[in-house]
Amino acid sequence: MRDRSGLFRALPRPLLARIAVATSVWMIATAGWPQTAAPPPAPPPSPEQNAPQPGGPPPNGAPAPPAAAENPGLFNEMGKMLEKSLSILPTLKSTGETLDDFNARAKDAAKNASESLSRLTTPSSMAEGRIKCPVSANGASDCKAAADKLCQAKGLKEGKSLSTDSVEACSAKVLIPGRARKPDDCRTDNFVTRALCQ
Question: In the chain, N or C: fewer CB atoms in 10 Å?
Answer without folding.
Answer: N
